[in-house]
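**Protein fold record**
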Amino acid sequence: MEPSSSVKDRIGYSMISDAEAKCLIKLGERVHIEPTSGNTGIGLAFMAAAKGYMLIIMMPSILIGFGAEVVLTDPTKGMKGKFLKEQNPNIKLFGVEPVESPVFSGGKPGPHKIQGIGTGFIPGVLEVDLIDEVIQISSDKAIETAKLLTLKEGLLVGISSDTAVAAAIRIVKRPENVGKLIIVIFPNFGCAF
């Protein structure tokens, strides 16, 4: 499902297959698909290589414009996504998964409405031992949170982000977390219900 361990492998496959079906690309030609600086580029590069296409990736200079330093890493050495715990060993990391597909918790995969998470397997790149606790959120709760974030906060984020917020709300209500900083990462945007 994600042979290069990128969450965007399937998107890369879909983009290449769609371009093939529309006769926009053919073998032996360079393929310039889109500018990217993240996992979409990884998925595209893997799928293009698997199908025999050459691919040109354009990284937007907006990253540098925002003050970011762009560092190309050696893929043979990998990345170590352990930094937070090295900086603060008291930090707690929470995973989130659909109630309907509780694979991280030892359950069986199942159908759910939360796109982007709960794929039914544990990716090889995920170091499960770094996760302190897994929070399960139902599809209905994720959708309810999506509506809440859109109407109350004006945030139009994807359903996996809404699921993360639902988990954070549950965590922040615990008595032991009074006064603590809870951070939620929104890895996507633009999904409305």
